[in-house]
Design brief:
There is one protein chain. The protein is an alpha/beta fold. The chain has a single domain (7-223), classed as Rossmann fold. Helix content is 30%, strand content 28%. It is built from 6 helices and 10 strands; from the N terminus they run βαββαβαβαβαβαβββ. It has helices at 16-28, 54-64, 79-95, 109-119, 135-144, 170-175; strands at residues 7-11, 32-41, 46-47, 68-73, 98-102, 125-127, 148-155, 189-195, 205-213, 216-223. 37% of the residues are buried.
Length: 226
């Protein structure tokens, strides 16, 4: 009998980085990814930060074959509330025999350090499969893999509102202003993945209303009716 692989969760934001991190982990075969950990802002029933509808999130995870582990948080969410809710989710994961959480972080050392500090001593080890890969070549690798995504949120400090709702493709990369990271790692934009090698099927969405709130532009991505 082969020894069983360590059980892991993917920290799932609904976007391209977590999707490609999952792709790389599945290709390596090192872990048994048994679920997806996602914070959802209960006030709006949307993925936190990204603003993706819960029904789109659930369609993604169904297509990826991942049971959802949704962590509900309020809006606004004080940091101590966020950390308490995540602490409960981590404790439950440990109880379920999970030993690792996979993150799609690319190069922000403070974010990685925060994750490592919060998981220290919990029994969960963080894994960063995309860490320090050059982001322009990484963005092109994502696109070449068949990953399809839309910009769900843009930070208006970096990009005009019209970028919300655009496809994450080579044309977008060419249009990004100087100083904007090709993967949006500094928070310039956040994405919603609708297709790729991790999915059994494409998620049928259409771009809906674009709204601006709190310095961000959000494009509503709506499930197409069959």
């Amino acid at each position: 009998m082969k020894p069983s692989k360590p059980k892991a969760l993917i920290s799932w934001s609904s976007g391209k980085d977590s999707a490609f991190a999952l792709h790389e982990i599945r290709r390596s075969g090192e872990f048994d990814v048994v679920g997806a950990l996602t914070t959802v802002t209960a006030t709006f029933e949307r993925v936190s930060i990204h603003g993706v509808r819960r029904e789109v999130l659930l369609a993604q995870l169904d297509a990826a074959g991942l049971p959802p582990r949704i962590v509900p948080i309020p809006y606004p969410c004080p940091n101590e509330t966020y950390e308490a809710r995540m602490g409960e989710a981590v404790a439950q994961a440990v109880q379920d025999g999970i030993t690792h959480i996979i993150f799609g972080d690319l190069y922000l050392a403070d974010i990685r350090c925060y994750r490592e500090q919060k998981l220290a001593g919990t029994g969960i080890t963080p894994v960063f499969p995309l860490w320090q890969r050059p982001t322009l070549s990484l963005a092109h690798a994502m696109i070449a893999s068949g990953l399809e995504a839309y910009l769900a949120t843009v930070d208006l400090k970096y990009l005009p509102a019209e970028f919300a709702g655009r496809k994450f493709d080579s044309a977008l990369l060419a249009d990004l202003p100087d100083g904007v990271d090709p993967c949006g790692e500094n928070g310039e934009f956040h994405t919603c993945v609708v297709a790729g090698p991790i999915f059994s099927r494409r998620i049928a969405v259409m771009t809906g209303e674009r709204v601006e709130r709190d310095g961000y532009a959000y494009c509503d991505l709506v499930m197409e009716e069959l």
